[in-house]
Amino acid sequence: MARKGPDFASPVRRILVSLLVIVLLAAFLFWKIDSPRAERMRAAFVDRFVPGFEWVLLPLTKVSNMVAGYQSYARLYDQNQELRRELQKMSAWKEAAVQLEQENAKLLAQNNVRIDPALTSVSGVVLTDSGTAFRQSVLLNVGARDGIVDGWATMDGLGLVGRISGVGETTSRVMLLTDPSSRIPVIIQPSGQRALMGGDNTSLPVLDFIESPENVRPGDRVVSSGDGGVFPPGLLIGQLAMATDGRLRVRMAADYGRLEFLRVLRSHPAEQLADSGRLIPPPPPEFVGPRMPDRLPEAAQTEGAPTDSGRQ
Known about the structure:
Elements: H1 9-32, H2 36-49, H3 54-110, E1 119-129, E2 137-140, E3 153-155, E4 160-167, E5 172-176, E6 183-189, E7 193-198, E8 206-208, E9 221-224, E10 236-242, E11 248-252, E12 261-267, H4 298-304, H5 308-311
Antiparallel strand pairs: 1-2, 1-12, 2-5, 3-4, 3-12, 4-5, 6-7, 6-9, 7-8, 9-10, 10-11
């Protein structure tokens, strides 16, 4: 049986390990020495050997950059998801707020809440929508038996809708502001510019004949002016908007997609004075301009009559 030779690997391994430990310990102690000479030697060593190992550090640098980018992307993704959840919550709250606002407005309308001391209203239910390509109107379940008069303004809980354009015994027809035959004078606030709003079978009626278009901007309130006696003044119609065709239009305040209840505003005629000797009564609606009384009071005639002494 052959005998094994002497084992030299183990002693050599021990010697190498011991030398490595001694070198590392010496390098550690040298690196920790707080001396100007040692600092210069360390700087020289770093300048001499470290730049040559950039190719070794390049993969590690790339990997660290990729990890940092992934972490940044993960944070952005989490923030995006959080913003999406908050946006969904806000959309739900907005929808709930709009529904509550409309419901509150409809309940107020049923209670005949006054918009102006000179105006009262009669609430009616929308029976059917008879809108076509050439006519925009709805039918209400109130008519002549309820005192409805042709020409009165109608509103939902948010804004002006249209006016009465036909009265039956138990029903009445409302011509909407979006009807092509609808033309009403309006005021744009806060600039006070006057314009004419006309329907064109779209949800955004057009504004024409604006006095100074440079003084208005999208978002301004549009209210009825009361000119011509078509509508009472100050009724909210909507907000100014700039359409894609470059024309100024009105975003309606009334929800034309869900017209369920409407208020018919009673327009009271001007009060006529019985005693015309002391006060000048208001002129009839068709009269324009100043009006002189037909017969002066006797006292005025006596005071204004010339005397004999005056002739002399």
